[in-house]
Design brief:
By secondary structure, this protein is mainly alpha-helical. It has 19 helices and four strands. A two-stranded antiparallel ribbon has the order 1-2. The longest helix is centred in the last third of the chain and has 31 residues. The termini are far apart.
Length: 509
């Protein structure tokens, strides 16, 4: 028998309806277990619950996309969900769910308005041209369907910009998103350092984990790590540098300085000279753009770094065979190759020269729509290919700018440059207007980092890499959210210094 209190509790919660609902759910669950494996049913329930939780916190969902595409997760170990005409990864489903949520809220909620930004037009135009070029190539059977869909998935992650601008509207959401980005980057950096200490025998990270070779010289005990998470560490290192320079010194800044050191060491461990050039350009522009007292702070942090480096060098100099000494020697040797004529004859650059020759011919032959995403633009060439390769390199090119020209023609490339210039101009024009120093550093850092993406794309392919495209969309979206908050009261940039609603303590990462 139920107690009187229990009866009242059930009655107060509309017991007949809830009992009927529970019975119906139980019957459906029993039928599902009869038709499918209980493990599949349990997985579906867990996945459904996770999806509902994720949709309630879009910023967490965005971090889930980054964790799957740009961190320590192995892409080939992600489960595939068949959809009849192919398959999708879990981050693809999250992206589709979030985009659908925007449409659903717009249709259902009367007070939900679609946020428009100056970046929407160029992004949608670029995406539309890429879609058109690819579908025409598929219709003409000039590109493999699966390869085209794989590349289209990567380009679709640019749409994270709309998710940020339309679903990340509150200060707390923005703070969670930014803290999550920097936390993921720090995790990647720590695992990279652990990978370096362990060597290449046990691979902890996806991507390339290999012994370092520079101009034919091998470095024993030095592991080069080129992981998908390199996009996060490069971005976060530049942003953390900007925020340290623009923030007044506080004891908590020492934690940020420690994080900065981990990220910087991780950038070194990639041994990507293009990243080192990007960091140098970003530091130079940062010193040029900031005010005099911030420039003095940058100089002060630089002196701290040099003193710490000298101390470490003095401590390890007694062990010339230690990993620390070998790492410094290998780093200086590789850095010195930037000014060496021998660098032009390196195999990696010769490979790029051959790729560029084929690419320029195809671009001249298909200037309007290109070949479509995923198309093979060159034949087998024994100068850069060999029998038994574990992947088909005929559709890959290291130059990101030429990759877009190949895939979507001159119109697609011009649209991407339109998007890029709009983002850079808005970032460099308005970052000073944000009164909160933490957010000001983030906006400037994102702008400098994207300028670095454009530079590194000469020898890399970030524009079509799914370790970069979600991050590009998110950084563009964050800057637009910051600027929208800045101008939400209709004030001009010149009078907006005190209108930023987020206190510096709430923005700290």
């Amino acid at each position: 028998m139920l107690s009187q209190r229990s009866k009242q509790l059930i009655a107060s919660h509309n017991a007949p309806f809830e009992l009927a609902l529970a019975c119906g759910a139980g019957l459906l669950l029993g039928a599902a277990c009869a038709w499918f494996s209980p493990l599949w049913v349990l997985g579906a329930l867990a996945g459904g619950g996770l999806m509902l939780a994720v949709l309630r916190r879009p910023e967490i969902a965005l971090l889930g996309i980054l964790a799957a595409t740009s961190s320590i997760v192995f892409e080939d170990r992600l489960p595939l969900i068949p959809i009849g005409v192919g398959s999708l990864h879990i981050p693809d489903l999250i992206l589709l769910a979030l985009l659908s949520l925007i449409v659903l809220r717009w249709l259902v909620e009367t007070d939900f308005k679609i946020i428009r930004t100056p970046l929407d037009g160029p992004l949608l135009t670029f995406y539309g041209v890429a879609l058109l070029s690819t579908f025409i190539a598929i219709f003409r059977s000039s590109v493999d369907f699966n390869l085209a869909m794989r590349e289209l998935r990567a380009v679709s992650y640019y749409l994270t910009l709309f998710i940020v601008t339309n679903l990340v509207r509150e200060d707390r959401q923005l703070i969670v998103l930014l803290r999550g980005v920097f936390l993921l980057a720090t995790i990647v950096a720590v695992v990279m350092i652990a990978q370096f200490l362990l060597g290449e025998s046990l691979q902890l990270l996806p991507g390339r984990v290999e012994a370092l070779y520079t101009q034919g010289t091998g470095y024993s005990g030095i592991t080069r790590i080129v992981t998908p998470g390199r996009s996060l560490i490069l971005l976060s290192f530049i942003v953390t540098t900007a925020t340290l320079v623009l923030n007044k010194f506080r004891p908590i800044n020492m934690l940020s300085f420690l994080q900065w050191g981990l990220l910087g060491l991780a950038v070194v461990l990639t041994f990507l000279r293009s990243y080192w050039v990007v960091v140098s350009v970003a530091l130079f522009l940062l010193a040029y753009l900031v005010r005099e007292h911030d420039r003095r702070r940058l100089l002060g942090w630089g002196l701290v770094v040099m003193l710490l480096a000298a101390l470490v060098l003095a401590l390890v100099s007694y062990k010339p065979d230690s990993q620390a000494v070998k790492l410094m020697r290998a780093s200086f040797d590789r850095l010195a190759t930037l000014g060496s004529q021998r660098t032009l004859s390196e195999d990696s650059l010769q490979w790029r020269y051959v790729e560029n020759e084929y690419a320029l011919r195809q671009i001249a032959s298909h200037p309007l729509l290109g070949l479509g995403l995923g198309a093979r633009y060159r034949p087998f060439d024994p100068r850069i290919d060999y029998r038994g390769m574990n992947w088909d390199a005929r559709g890959f090119i290291h130059n990101g700018h030429l990759a877009i020209l190949l895939a979507s023609g001159l119109p697609g490339y011009l649209c991407l440059m339109w998007l890029s210039l709009a983002f850079l101009i808005r970032g460099f024009r308005y970052w000073r207007c944000i009164s909160n120093s933490q957010m000001r550093g983030i906006v400037l850092g994102f702008t400098l980092a994207y300028l670095g993406v454009l530079i590194s794309a000469v020898v890399g392919s970030p524009f079509t890499s799914w370790s970069w495209t979600p991050l590009i969309g998110i950084m563009m979206g964050v800057n637009e959210v910051a600027l929208r908050k800045l101008f939400s009261r209709g004030q001009s940039p010149a009078h907006a210094d005190n209108e930023w609603p987020m206190g510096s303590s709430r923005c700290a990462t």
